[in-house]
Please model this.
Amino acid sequence: MLRLNLLLLLIAVFCALGTVSANHKARKLLAEYERAQNHMHDLDVEWGQLQLEQSTWANHARIEQVARDKLMMRAPGAGQMMVLEAAR
Model:
Protein backbone atom coordinates (compact mmCIF):
# COMPACT_ATOMS: atom_id res chain seq x y z
CA MET A 1 0.00 0.00 0.00
CA LEU A 2 2.86 2.40 0.87
CA ARG A 3 4.58 1.63 -2.45
CA LEU A 4 1.39 2.34 -4.36
CA ASN A 5 1.00 5.70 -2.55
CA LEU A 6 4.63 6.61 -3.31
CA LEU A 7 4.17 5.63 -6.95
CA LEU A 8 1.01 7.71 -7.23
CA LEU A 9 2.74 10.65 -5.53
CA LEU A 10 5.68 10.36 -7.92
CA ILE A 11 3.33 10.29 -10.91
CA ALA A 12 1.46 13.36 -9.58
CA VAL A 13 4.76 15.26 -9.12
CA PHE A 14 5.90 14.42 -12.66
CA CYS A 15 2.52 15.50 -14.06
CA ALA A 16 2.73 18.78 -12.14
CA LEU A 17 6.27 19.41 -13.42
CA GLY A 18 5.14 18.61 -16.97
CA THR A 19 2.27 21.09 -16.65
CA VAL A 20 4.56 23.83 -15.35
CA SER A 21 7.05 23.15 -18.13
CA ALA A 22 4.35 23.21 -20.81
CA ASN A 23 2.93 26.50 -19.48
CA HIS A 24 6.41 28.07 -19.42
CA LYS A 25 7.09 26.97 -23.00
CA ALA A 26 3.69 28.27 -24.14
CA ARG A 27 4.41 31.69 -22.59
CA LYS A 28 7.81 31.84 -24.25
CA LEU A 29 6.29 30.95 -27.63
CA LEU A 30 3.58 33.57 -27.20
CA ALA A 31 6.19 36.25 -26.42
CA GLU A 32 8.20 35.20 -29.48
CA TYR A 33 5.05 35.32 -31.62
CA GLU A 34 4.24 38.84 -30.41
CA ARG A 35 7.80 39.99 -31.19
CA ALA A 36 7.47 38.54 -34.69
CA GLN A 37 4.12 40.32 -35.15
CA ASN A 38 5.68 43.63 -34.08
CA HIS A 39 8.60 43.09 -36.44
CA MET A 40 6.17 42.32 -39.27
CA HIS A 41 4.28 45.54 -38.53
CA ASP A 42 7.54 47.53 -38.55
CA LEU A 43 8.46 45.99 -41.91
CA ASP A 44 5.03 46.87 -43.33
CA VAL A 45 5.50 50.49 -42.24
CA GLU A 46 8.99 50.58 -43.77
CA TRP A 47 7.64 49.06 -47.02
CA GLY A 48 5.01 51.80 -47.25
CA GLN A 49 7.64 54.47 -46.68
CA LEU A 50 9.88 52.96 -49.37
CA GLN A 51 7.01 52.87 -51.85
CA LEU A 52 6.26 56.54 -51.13
CA GLU A 53 9.92 57.43 -51.54
CA GLN A 54 10.11 55.52 -54.84
CA SER A 55 7.05 57.30 -56.21
CA THR A 56 8.58 60.64 -55.21
CA TRP A 57 11.91 59.92 -56.89
CA ALA A 58 10.20 58.57 -60.03
CA ASN A 59 7.86 61.55 -60.43
CA HIS A 60 8.01 62.73 -64.06
CA ALA A 61 8.14 66.42 -63.16
CA ARG A 62 11.09 65.80 -60.84
CA ILE A 63 12.96 63.79 -63.50
CA GLU A 64 12.39 66.58 -66.02
CA GLN A 65 13.65 69.19 -63.57
CA VAL A 66 16.79 67.20 -62.76
CA ALA A 67 17.44 66.65 -66.48
CA ARG A 68 17.11 70.40 -67.13
CA ASP A 69 18.98 71.72 -64.09
CA LYS A 70 21.75 69.21 -63.44
CA LEU A 71 22.28 67.62 -66.85
CA MET A 72 21.57 70.75 -68.90
CA MET A 73 19.23 68.80 -71.15
CA ARG A 74 16.44 70.40 -73.16
CA ALA A 75 13.63 69.20 -75.35
CA PRO A 76 14.59 68.91 -79.04
CA GLY A 77 13.27 71.44 -81.52
CA ALA A 78 10.79 70.49 -84.22
CA GLY A 79 13.56 70.27 -86.85
CA GLN A 80 15.59 67.89 -84.67
CA MET A 81 12.94 65.21 -84.33
CA MET A 82 12.58 62.15 -86.55
CA VAL A 83 9.73 59.71 -86.75
CA LEU A 84 10.79 56.13 -87.36
CA GLU A 85 8.45 53.39 -88.40
CA ALA A 86 9.03 49.90 -87.12
CA ALA A 87 9.62 47.20 -89.72
CA ARG A 88 7.04 44.48 -89.72
Observations:
- Residues 2-72 form one domain.
- The chain has one domain: 2-72.
- The helical segments are 2-57, 60-69.
